């Protein structure tokens, strides 16, 4: 068997494993959610976000589909409603503070808050390892700062229920710490007890400074899709930081926060060049946000398994 055939066989085996995982049912005693459970999904008009919203709806939750453009978001909602799902729409651009404000006011007024947040919205403009200043800024602003601001805005709105609140951010294995060749920075980011928002902000700002100066290539940053990888590395670190900060909330107000890598997925973001479908990619965040084991927090997942940061 040649290399190409071997890779094809491996992909097929993985596809079968994933579809097997997707058939695992949630038994009644594990089912903590009802139709009153509110799940918010960002960037849910297409791709993985659409599928996460769809699958949460299929599990019987009320899903708030959000998108930065109203027309495409309403269209996505219409498709899900025609399938009998309990889905609502609201406009949300995660990098626009006024959009974030009107969304959170609407959410509080309409539902009193939320139980599940899926931070899915993201961008990627990479071709090879090149970084234009503008693209790098947009990627960091959307993927890191947008996700961070969304999370911080939603935390006070998370409803106090026995099951606690659940936050899942869509990141990537490209943002793993092992991709950092700058040993000093990697050691700092590995130390969860010392992790701080300032350190994560400084990390992305120092990357952007080097992109502007044209010196980023010798900065020890991840080699592939560098700006995208740095943005996801920052969200991974932010997830661990928030898990630490949220861990001492009293019972009944627990919030569990994790992140996951969907794999290489056939969506607009990869030019539909991925190896798995958005349906398959949506499985882990849905499982993770409905998981009955309430003590999972501050972890990184892929294909329903914990992986290293
Ligand atoms: N596809 C992969 O192989 C892969 C791998 C690892 C991680 N991911 C992550 O998975 C997530 C979903 O990506 P995808 O593959 O499904 O790509 P996609 O089809 O391009 O979807 C991205 C979604 O994010 C939205 N978005 C972008 N900027 C936004 C903003 N400022 N505010 C609100 N929404 C915004 C997009 O809205 P518009 O339609 O308005 O552009 C779109 O709905 C991203 O976080 C991505 O980084 C994807």
What would you say this structure looks like, in words?
It is a single chain. With 309 residues, the chain is an alpha/beta fold. The protein has a single domain, classed as 3-Layer(aba) Sandwich (Rossmann fold), CATH 3.40.50. It has helices at residues 3-22, 47-58, 70-82, 97-111, 133-154, 183-190, 197-213, 226-246, 278-281, 283-290, and strands at residues 38-41, 62-67, 87-91, 116-119, 165-170, 255-260, 300-302, 305-307. An 8-stranded mixed β-sheet has the order 3-2-1-4-5-6-7-8, sandwiched between helices. A hairpin with a 2-residue loop joins strand 7 (300-302) and strand 8. Helix 5 (133-154) runs parallel beside helix 8 (226-246). It is globular and about 50 Å long.
CATH topology: Rossmann fold
Report the biggest beta sheet as strand number plus sense, adding barrel if it closes.
Answer: 8 strands, mixed
Strand content: 5-15%
Q: Which CATH architecture is right?
A: 3-Layer(aba) Sandwich
End-to-end gap: 34 Å
Please work out how many helical segments DSSP would assign: 10
The overall average pLDDT, rounded, is 92
* H/E element sequence: HEHEHEHEHEHHHEHHEE
Unreliable residue runs: none
Bound molecules: NADP nicotinamide-adenine-dinucleotide phosphate
Briefly, what CATH class? Answer: Alpha Beta
CATH superfamily: NAD(P)-binding Rossmann-like Domain
What keywords describe this structure?
single chain; 309 residues; alpha/beta; eight-stranded mixed beta sheet; binds NADP nicotinamide-adenine-dinucleotide phosphate
């Amino acid at each position: 068997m040649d290399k190409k055939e071997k890779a094809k066989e491996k992909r097929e085996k993985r596809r079968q494993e994933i579809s097997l995982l997707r058939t695992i049912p949630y038994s009644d005693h594990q089912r903590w959610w009802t139709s009153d459970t509110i799940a918010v999904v960002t960037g849910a008009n297409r791709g993985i976000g659409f599928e996460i919203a769809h699958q949460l709806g299929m599990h019987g939750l009320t899903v708030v589909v959000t998108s930065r453009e109203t027309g495409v978001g309403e269209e996505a909602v219409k498709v899900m409603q025609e399938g009998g799902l309990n889905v609502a729409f609201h406009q949300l651009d995660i990098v626009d503070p006024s959009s974030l404000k009107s969304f959170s006011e609407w959410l509080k007024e309409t539902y009193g808050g939320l139980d599940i947040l899926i931070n899915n919205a993201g961008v990627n403009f990479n071709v090879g390892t090149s970084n234009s200043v503008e693209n790098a800024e947009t990627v960091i602003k959307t993927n890191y700062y947008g996700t961070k601001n969304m999370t911080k805005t939603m935390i006070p709105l998370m409803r106090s229920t026995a099951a606690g609140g659940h936050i899942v951010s869509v990141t990537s294995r490209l943002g793993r710490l092992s991709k950092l060749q700058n040993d000093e920075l990697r050691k700092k980011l590995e130390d969860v007890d010392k992790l701080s928002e300032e350190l994560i902000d400084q990390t992305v700002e120092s990357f952007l400074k080097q992109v502007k100066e044209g010196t980023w290539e010798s900065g020890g940053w991840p080699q592939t899709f560098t700006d995208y990888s740095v943005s996801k590395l920052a969200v991974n670190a932010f997830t661990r930081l928030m898990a630490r900060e949220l861990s001492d909330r009293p019972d009944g107000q627990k919030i569990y926060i994790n992140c996951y890598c969907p794999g290489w997925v056939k969506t607009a973001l990869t030019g539909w060049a991925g190896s798995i479908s958005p349906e398959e990619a949506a499985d882990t965040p849905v499982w993770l946000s409905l998981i009955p084991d309430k003590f999972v927090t501050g972890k990184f997942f892929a294909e329903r398994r914990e992986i290293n940061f």
